[in-house]
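We now fix the convention by which a protein and its fold are recorded. Think of the row as the fold of the chain written in a discrete alphabet. Here is one such record, which you should read through line by line.
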Amino acid sequence: MSSQNLFYNPSVSDSSAQNDSNYTRNHHELDAHFFSDASVPLHSDWYEQIDQLEAIDMDELVKLLADTDDGNEAVKKPVSLADFFEGLAQLATMGVVEITEIVEAIHREVILRPMGRFNDKHLNKWQRGFTGRIYGTIRHIMLMVGNNLASVLRIYKNFIVQKTAQPLPDSLKKLVNVINGVMGDHLVNNQNALAVPMMLYNKDGSPQEEVLSGRIVIFCHGLCMSHLSWHAQENNNLGDAVHVSQPDTTVLYLDYNTGRRISRSGHKFSQLLQDLVDDNPDISQIDLVGHSMGGLVSRSALFYGEQERLGWIKRVGNLITLGSPHHGAVLERIGNYVQDIIAKLPFAGSLAKLGDMRSAGIIDLRHGSIRDADWQALEGRSVLPQDFRHPARLPSGIKTYFVASALLETHYDSKVTDLLGDSLVSVASALGEDDAEHALFVPDGHKAIFYGVNHMNLIHSRRVREQVVEWLFDNGRSDYAGRPRIHSYPRSLAVAV
């Protein structure tokens, strides 16, 4: 049977006269479908044929992967080129399935709401009825095709190309990290090969494997970024500047899935640091520098490291965050607000499902949630409201420095300037300033505001780079606590505050 005739019923003619009569008949069938508990879906023979598709699977092939599948997190490898194509095969199907669910939701709402039957009773009947089963069949077929194709590619990767696995080019690596930022938790839940494992890289961009000693500085990237983001400006990046000013310091870069819950990444980062110290007992000091979400992941790791009394915490000297939304990001709050409004509109509520596709990591940015308790007890993929989130204070004995930025190039003290901030994070949020319960008590002398710098340029700004290097080089010897907060302006502007 050709694909174009797959849904063709030979008992129905194409003539307009019969189409008119069929409309009346189908209208009564629709009434029976929704309003009669005893209704029986048509085309049962066709469904029996569809049900037989369930026998066409890859179970035997999947069994072959049991001994070779590198899904165990203990074996961490960067995403390879073969992983990329395998993950894309599955991801393409995931996209079709998500779109199908949105189309079905809109279809269901358009039909049921005008009749006043958009309720649980008739929604359940929809799922059991003819139209609901068609949508279910489409999802089933697409998932089966995508998963089977991914399984074939995984077999090919494990048995044929595993010895000559090609690393991803930098451009594709950056794309993979963007995908992880947008839907990283979905990738993990579906065991997609595109899910980025948490790993440390050295300054040459290779996985960290050599023996370490002395002082190390670890840079943690932000949402949708990667360890490569710190190297955007060759020979003029923050890591190189730290290495030049302190040649005996080892610079490492964390790479992780930014779409996962921040607290989950915090747990993993804490354990990774403990393993690092266990494997390299000669490490004397650890400094953490986090940009945006990376600062929250670092704080989460510190919180759980202290809570679990892990030994690596005692070696942390400095924590520096660059534009981290300690009390939430304005853009995510606006997005959530718009989604709530759309969800309340008739016939448009189903479009709110589009907002549900964003990753849990992005949702955590709404209020800067870094603890499991902020989301574990909730249904779905949400977080506690701002006033009910759990405080996560900074560990004592660690020198902490906060950097914020503002788009304005001159100092202008107003609520608008503070709210606008660097276009993504407000100044107050980046400086950890909130009410008494959630405020992060960092001395003013440990805070810096850089004017004329946007959120993404915080890791490339020369002025920010010089300040971070100064803090790390000083290493807590100077008494910054008694100084006023730092205001930094473009050197082209002679501004006196």
The beta strands are 199-201, 214-220, 250-255, 283-291, 316-322, 399-406, 447-451, 486-488.
